[in-house]
Design goal:
By secondary structure, the chain is α+β, with helices and mostly antiparallel strands. Among the domains are: 182 residues, no CATH class; 179 residues, no CATH class. 19% of the residues lie in helices and 28% in strands. The protein contains ten helices and 30 strands. It has a four-stranded antiparallel beta sheet. The protein has a four-stranded antiparallel beta sheet with strand order 5-6-7-8. The protein is elongated and about 80 Å long. The N terminus is likely disordered.
């Protein structure tokens, strides 16, 4: 269906042939408006009256699905109206639902010419597709699916609090047009739709029982420098066998390794002494090979690779000196992280540079690194692709989500993250394909294979991804909604199309302007349980800077504010959720590294306090 959307937008945005129906002329002269009149520039003596209530009337008609009256709007009525662009777009929506494709395209072109943004046009057109799908579901007596599509359709242009009631109104209007009765459809409860109270939330197909979180255990690891909770590397905590491992910076000369025995909760620690130029974006990444040797990369932010390996399997007490991985590893940038052994693949290291992603493979027999592969992009420097840590599939596949970044637009605007893309590989990274199994041509050009988030929309550069039981990607990130307010968002491929939901109801905007900021939202993390339900872990100002989880039940993953739980009552400042994905996969127990993090601004280090570091275990019900 994403191809349907793409083709629809291309067809509607291309020029309209002249001489057929409504002629598209050059843009109208600039106008001034006042008290129900429009004065054309250069002709101030000639006042052209307009209907002040026309836009509100058309908006209500769109919300209720009164397509016949929207389609009656004429260009002669609209061309002198100050809101003519939006009115033309709503007229186009009416023509679409009436099956008047040529008129719909002509009014869409008028809306664009008169100043309506492509983003708003796209939203209204896609809303029309959902309305058509809702009607098709109603014809098939599938009330639940019809309600979902009508809710999606209204999400483009109705206040969030009014959507449940407007969905009911839209449903009734569309059923009337189809000659159907509400009693012929069945909501999830099994009651006929007209027997359910109007204010009921049955139209929102969320799981009805309450979602709950139980804390199973807490382990104190001592006090440490406050900026350890950064999600730049994927393996901040990992489990192998009966042991769990993590690492954090105690101070600028001490990196502490921790081994936890999951059978008796015993804790061992070992300090690696050295010079660690502490920075608010530094993190560490842990890996373990199939012989049980622990590996660690640390102290990275566009710097030379720093790496060590444990001398004894499953023992953190003895470590090698810093070791090279490959010749020229001084050129490696950003945050490297380990890809743990899976299927027939050994331990690997992933690193993202300005215009490449690299994979390096560990030879367990020789205990050496080699076979570097460059997964190359063709972005225009200084713009680049920002690769996120790859996710292994249960079938041996490898999946990656990456964010395209523009070149510097101006000294003030800097780098802008413009869109999210996805690729997967079935041959350990030698070749790559998009979700529709179409192979990429390497180097990968700047593309928008997954639904895009447009430039200057406060898209975070680091998304997180997990795979469902069919190895299909689920991606979480934050970016602006249609109102310009950053929201957490869930993007997933259902095997046929990409689907997308906002999963927060924030009311306040903020803007990203530089690195290492005190940001109201943490970068989210995502895990799926064995039933493919989604859990999004995050921290934001709406949770009073406490760690929280949002539950999104399969298969439709609708957001419900009632399915949000605080997982740790203590405030954690600007911390991000550092989680153990391996233990989650094995036991459906989620371990988090928790610390109150005041977050230095722009890598400032002065007067940083120390705060307690904890491991907490959670189970979701």
């Amino acid at each position: 269906m994403s191809n349907l959307f793409r083709n629809l937008l291309k067809r509607w945005f291309k020029p309209v042939a002249q001489g057929v129906g409504i002629s598209i002329s050059k843009a109208m002269p600039s106008t001034q408006e006042t008290a129900g009149f429009t004065y054309e520039a250069g002709h101030l003596a000639h006042a052209i009256p307009y209907d002040e209530n026309l836009l509100e009337q058309a908006r209500v008609q769109w919300q209720f699905g009164d397509w016949e009256n929207l389609a009656k709007l004429e260009r002669d009525i609209l061309q002198h109206h100050p809101d003519r662009a939006k009115l033309a777009l709503l007229a186009a929506a009416g023509h679409i639902q009436q099956g008047n494709a040529q008129s719909a395209r002509q009014f869409t072109q008028l809306a664009q010419e008169w100043g309506c943004s492509k983003k708003l046009i796209s939203q209204i057109l896609i809303a029309g597709v959902h309305n058509s799908l809702g009607c098709a579901a109603a014809v098939n007596r599938d009330g639940q699916r019809a309600l979902r599509h009508f809710e999606f359709a209204l999400d483009a242009g109705a206040p969030a609090g009014e959507i449940p009631l407007l969905t009911q109104a839209r449903l009734g209007e569309q059923l009337g047009r189809l000659g159907l009765s509400a009693g012929s459809l069945q909501p999830p409860s099994g009651q006929p739709i007209d027997a359910v109270p109007r204010a009921s939330t049955f139209s929102l197909p969320h799981r009805q029982h309450a979602f709950a979180v139980t804390a199973l255990a807490k382990q104190a690891l001592g006090d440490a420098w406050t900026a350890n909770t950064v999600v730049s590397g994927r393996q901040g905590i990992l489990t192998s066998g009966n042991y769990q491992y993590t690492a954090f910076y105690v101070d600028e000369h001490t990196l502490r390794l921790v081994q936890r025995d999951l059978l008796d909760d015993g804790i061992r620690s070992h300090d690696l002494h050295g010079d660690y130029s502490l920075c608010g974006v530094y993190s560490s990444s842990l890996g373990i090979d199939r012989s049980g040797h622990l590996h660690i990369c640390y102290g990275h932010y566009a710097t030379q690779l720093r790496y060590r390996r444990a001398v004894i399997p499953y023992n953190i007490g003895q470590w090698s000196d810093e070791l090279p991985m490959i010749d020229g590893d001084k050129d490696w940038e950003a945050w490297p992280c380990f890809i743990l052994p899976h299927a027939s693949h050994p331990l690997r290291l992933f690193c993202c540079g300005g215009d490449y992603i690299r994979f390096n493979t560990y030879d367990e027999a020789d205990q050496t690194w080699g076979n570097r592969q460059d997964f190359v992009f063709s972005g225009i420097k200084p713009g680049n692709s920002y690769g996120n840590p790859p996710v292994p599939g249960s079938d041996g596949s490898l999946h990656i989500v990456f964010v395209w970044r523009t070149p510097i637009l101006s000294e003030k605007e800097g780098i802008s993250n413009i869109t999210i893309c996805y690729a997967y590989s079935l041959d350990s990274g030698l070749t790559w394909a998009v979700a529709y199994s179409r192979p990429y041509q390497l180097p990968i050009p700047q593309m928008k294979e997954a639904p895009s988030v447009l430039s200057s929309s406060d898209l975070i550069d680091q998304a997180d991804m997990a795979l469902d039981s069919c190895n299909r990607p689920h991606i979480v990130f934050y970016s602006e909604d249609l109102s310009g307010i950053p929201q957490y968002q869930h993007l997933w491929f259902d095997g046929i199309i990409w689907r997308h939901h906002c999963i927060s109801h924030r009311k306040t905007a903020f803007f990203l302007d530089g690195d290492t900021l005190q940001v109201s939202l943490s970068r989210p993390q995502i895990v799926l349980d064995r039933q493919d339900n989604v859990y999004v872990i995050y921290r934001d100002d709406l949770t009073d800077y406490r760690l929280a989880v949002t539950y999104l039940p399969a298969p439709d993953y609708f957001y419900n504010p009632a399915q949000v739980c605080i997982v740790w009552e203590a405030e954690c400042g600007f911390a991000e959720p550092v989680i153990d994905r391996i233990r989650w996969q094995n036991e459906n127990v989620l371990t988090l590294l928790v610390q109150n993090n005041p977050q230095p601004v722009h890598e400032l280090q002065n007067a940083l306090p120390t705060t307690p570091v904890l491991l907490i275990d959670l189970r979701f019900y």
